[in-house]
Amino acid sequence: MAKEFDVVVVGAGPGGYIAAIRAAQLGFSVGCIEKWKNPKGELALGGTCLNVGCIPSKALLASSEEFEKIQHHADQHGISVQGAKIDVAKMLARKDGIVTKMTKGIEFLFRKNKITWLKGNGKFVAKTDAGYQLEVTGDEGSETISGKHVIIATGSKARHLPNIKVDNDLVCDNEGALNFPSVPKKLGVIGAGVIGLELGSVWRRLGAEVTVLEALPAFLGAVDETVAKEAAKLFGKQGLNIQLGVKIGEVKTSKKGVSLAYADKDGKEHTLEVDRLIVSIGRVPNTDDLGLGAIGLGVNERGFIDVDEHCRTKLPNVYAIGDVVRGPMLAHKAEDEGVMVAELIAGQKPHIDYNCIPWVIYTSPEIAWVGKTEQQLKQEGRAYKTGQFPFMANGRALGMGAPEGFVKMLADASTDEILGVHVIGLNASDLIAEAVAAMEFKASSEDIGRVCHPHPSLSEVMREAALAVEKRALNM
Question: At which positions is FAD bound (predicted)?
């Protein structure tokens, strides 16, 4: 007899496993389908984020930052270091150990919450009076299971260029770029987005000469223009060679490496010779091989599943969350959607304010923002005021050797409601949380300006930026 569940979740990435846990907390019987296998051939929970995305990339970013600090910044503290070397194999082993710890942690949470891990590929078979039937195919064969409610959380995969074959050896996407066996002397990166900048930064710090080729004419077009301009200046000083407005031509691989032809923004032809190439041009939803047609559900022209503001599809009791639906492809966005859907199934009334979802780029310095950019407000014709404060004027930032960057706050010209906050600087990923909380509660810039912040701390820069909205920053 087929296994029956109140809720079946397809995919155990950040959106899926969180949805499964929240549904279990609410008293539902839950089955979660996941087929991911790690390089050892072992089944693993956590999806792209934990296995080959957010978690391993941040581990490498941390390792490379430590190496760069020792090589280039320790002497500022009176610390003399000679002959520092990077053991790439040990660095990768540390990264893999963190990944394993995290994925095993989700296994523990599944056991704790009595969630059944259905190991294999999930595919819809039919719609029944009681719900939906899915076939799960794994190493031990196939089984048919059923669920009254189904949450599709199958995530996304790297987008590849049609004329460039990714072998994850010489030409890599995010997976291969996390496992270079040695530091390439010359590294090419196609795409100056989040992943390209982060992985390019990792290998640059370790000694690679990095060239980033971006097709768009503007750098970090989704970021506030003031922040993007500062980032371009700082990354250039660090040694990232970022070329904008390029057109990629033929790519050839050989025993020597990779040869890439491209035209620059002025149409001049160039050939870039590198040891390895990272292709980082975005991601596409994993909506193929789901058997959606069997239940009368399809995808739109971009491959996404259409949903409403509560992640409901056009079919009753079928939901989709995370990277397979509209909105930013961010792990924390998927998590919030997973919680929301589980609570909706339980009859609760949750909602998500998508304007209050923060974005982060984990370069050095980090970039983080929430809400509207200044250029968006101008396009909307919204009257606004702005305040900005530099980390250079903050004692804690100076003491930590991180004076670069600033906090910028945008507020409504008449009501003072915070409309957007943009941070480029040390620990921006943590600092932005205060702005997110403030915006969720519809706070004004004055609200943050009147809240006592610890001294000395980086958080004081957030307060000073809020005070600067009314031209009353205290330390400038």
Answer: 58, 122, 154-156, 323, 329-332
Q: Please indicate, yes or no, if residue 476 is contained in any of the structural domains.
A: no
Q: What is the distance between the alpha carbons of residues 360 and 430, in angstroms, rounded to a whole number?
A: 10
Query: pTM surpassing 0.90?
Result: yes
Where is 223: in which H helix or E strand? none
Parallel, antiparallel, or unpaired for β 186-190 and 141-152? unpaired
271 assigned ligand-binding residue: no
Structure-token pair, residue 164:
């460039």
The 8-class DSSP code of residue 37 comes to: B
List active site positions.
455
Please check whether residues 274 and 301 belong to one and the same domain: no
424 in helix, strand or coil? strand
Say yes or no: 99 and 231 in one domain.
no
pLDDT given at position 24: 98
Residue 165 lies in a domain: no
Is 423 annotated in a binding site? The answer is no
Distance of alpha carbon 96 from alpha carbon 56, whole angstroms: 7
Q: What is the pLDDT confidence band of residue 1, given thresholds at 50, 70 and 90? A: low
Residue 319 phi, psi (nearest 5)? -120, 160
Tell me which residue has tokens 């004076």: 403
119 with 213, same domain: the answer is: no
Looking at the DSSP bridge assignments, the partners of residue 247 are 263
Alpha carbon dihedral 378, 380, 382, 386, in 10-degree steps, equals -40
Q: How many domains does the chain have?
A: 3
230-274: pLDDT as tens digits: 999 999 999 999 999 999 999 999 999 999 999 999 999 999 999
Which of 299, 324, 352 is the endpoint of a domain? 352
Check: CB of residue 257 under 8 Å from CB of residue 265.
no
Secondary structure of residue 110 in the 3-state scheme:
helix
- Tell me if 214 is assigned to a ligand binding site: yes
For residue 398, what are its two tokens?
């100076």
Query: Do residues 297 and 151 both lie within one domain?
Result: yes
* pLDDT classification of 2: cutoffs 50, 70, 90: confident
Backbone angles phi, psi at 171, to 5 degrees: -110, 115
Q: What are phi and psi of 408, to 5 degrees?
A: -125, 130
Return the closest-CA partner of residue 269 out of 286, 249, 289, 299: 249
Express each pLDDT in 125-153 by its tens digit: 999 998 999 999 999 899 999 999 999 99
Could you give the percent of the chain with pLDDT greater than 90?
Answer: 98
User: Is the model's pLDDT at 39 over the cut of 90?
Assistant: no
Looking at the fold, whether 13 and 110 belong to one and the same domain comes out as yes
Q: Look up the domain containing 438 and give its range.
A: 356-469
- Please tell me whether 445 is known to bind a ligand: no
Tell me if 323 is assigned to a ligand binding site.
yes
Q: Does 192 carry a binding-site annotation?
A: yes
